[in-house]
Amino acid sequence: MRTVRGILLDIDGVLHVSMQPIAGAADTLHWLTQNGYATCFVTNTTTLARTTLAQRLQQIGLPIAEQNLLTAPAATALYIRQHYPAKRCWVLTKGDTAADFAGIELVDERADVVVIGGAEELLTYETMNKAFRMLMDGAALLAMHTNLYWRTSNGLQLDSGPFVRALELATGKQATVLGKPNRTFFEQALLLLQVSPSEALVLGDDIENDIGGAQQAGLRGILVYTGKHKADSPLLQRIHPDALLASIADLPHYLASI
Q1: Which of 4, 50, 149, 170 is 20 to 30 A away from residue 16, measured at CA?
Q2: Are 202 and 219 in contact (CB under 8 A)?
Q3: pTM of this prediction?
Q4: For 205-235, b where at least 16 C-beta lie within 10 A, e where not — what string?
Q5: Residue 1's pLDDT is what?
Q6: For 20-43, how does the pLDDT look when each residue is reduced to its tens digit (9 = 90+)?
């Protein structure tokens, strides 16, 4: 009897690097569909709305439908609608995620909620100081994720997590994190797939956010080496993936073996 029915897949570093598909990624996605696995694509990518991201992935040959995507911006917008209805929100992120925040009042000053996404070069001293002042005036702090860095075609690149930590340190406030490794994020994906944690696994390249987050939510965590973390990562001394794969191309063989 099959023990795994649902597969949660990270995107950056698992399916592509800088929009260059990983060898075997598309074939593996087709194989999962043909063999009856329910799939959900879970990403902390914050620069694209779900619709746009699905279109970009389809353009590089990855068969991913919008309804199977769960992104950090979409999860953040849902949280704001539930916990901060009618509040003024300053969303600091680059790219186009406006569609995900439809119906939420977005402002540039005097915000009730400060949201930090993947802002990268926007995270200047002036911007950070603006966020700091809003938080000190009483705004709540939300973070789409706290990723420290990720892999691009030019190598590793600093992410927004360290800037969120800086705001926490300066203000004494604790950010509410809505993307991975937040347990609720994984639970939303399981609801989409209609499977229990024991029937699902996460395939990711981030030891803390993908593997650690998955295991804390009761799922198996499978690490691939095509992204940010390799076999020599010191993080593997405290977080132990359920399996280590060279790439997503090895996933069918792994699933057949369990």
Answers
A1: 4
A2: yes
A3: 0.82
A4: bbbbbbbbbbbebebbbbbbbbbbbeeeeee
A5: 46
A6: 999 999 999 999 999 999 999 999
